[in-house]
DNA sequence: CAGTGCCT
DNA sequence: ACGA
């Protein structure tokens, strides 16, 4: 495992190619099982009801969801099936143990599927009740242009071209940084059957 | 403002 | 930069 910490803000950690190809394939198989149980759906913005460009699902005790009427929140059931979210795959729990430095396990794993046109605007992950634990993020499939700023929206930003198997963690002073995905580079990975990218985000929600 | 749509 |  390699960690590139240099030139990154305190609390930000980047592990390029954390997962090798066989591990990525195993992770994709596990995520396919999650999606078979908890289908991808289109999340909607609070108040406007505007569709986001990514499709989402979750695994874990809690999942991050958003809709027009109730906005951003965590809940224990899939918004369309009403069923509890499936368990977080073991590989991801092991990743959390290796990288988070946090004793308690993650409660939520948000699964975001980006097709080639999908984007995610700059935002903070701030719907958790406790920010002591880091957010741990895994990239699978096509490369993307990932942008990170600071804790204020107006802070300057830097961009990274993330590849399949890369892991990013934001903790400490960087737990609440703004971050987003500006573009997907279709055809840059053979991991998935279809062009696009999967992002997995592990979070601790409650203290 | 987890958005869009300009602009350079 | 916007207007929700």
UniProtKB/TrEMBL annotation:
This is Alpha-ketoglutarate-dependent dioxygenase AlkB. One of its GO terms (molecular function) is dioxygenase activity. Keywords: Dioxygenase, Iron, Metal-binding, Oxidoreductase. It comes from Shinella sedimenti. Its cofactor is Fe(2+). Gene3D superfamilies: Alpha-ketoglutarate-dependent dioxygenase AlkB-like. Residues 105-206 form the Fe2OG dioxygenase domain. InterPro entries: Alkb (IPR004574), AlkB-like (IPR027450), AlkB-like_sf (IPR037151), Oxoglu/Fe-dep_dioxygenase_dom (IPR005123).
């Amino acid at each position: 495992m390699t960690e590139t910490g240099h030139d990154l803000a305190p609390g930000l950690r980047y592990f390029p190619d954390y997962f090798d190809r066989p591990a990525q394939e195993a992770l994709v198989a596990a995520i396919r099982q999650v999606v078979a149980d908890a289908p991808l759906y289109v999340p909607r913005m609070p108040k406007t009801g505007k569709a986001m460009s990514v499709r989402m699902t979750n695994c874990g005790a809690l999942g991050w969801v958003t809709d027009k009427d109730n906005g951003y929140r965590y809940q224990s059931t899939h918004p369309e099936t009403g069923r509890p979210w499936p368990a977080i795959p073991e590989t991801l729990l092991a990743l959390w143990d290796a990288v988070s430095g946090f004793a308690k396990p993650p409660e939520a794993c948000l699964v975001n599927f980006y097709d080639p046109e999908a984007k995610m605007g700059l935002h903070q992950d701030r719907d958790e009740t406790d920010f002591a634990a880091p957010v741990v993020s895994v990239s699978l499939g096509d490369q993307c242009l990932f942008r990170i700023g600071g804790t204020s929206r107006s802070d300057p930003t830097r961009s990274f071209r993330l590849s399949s198997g890369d892991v990013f963690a934001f903790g400490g002073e960087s737990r609440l940084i703004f971050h987003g995905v500006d573009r997907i580079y279709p055809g840059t990975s053979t991991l998935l059957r279809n062009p696009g990218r999967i992002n997995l985000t592990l979070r601790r929600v409650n203290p």
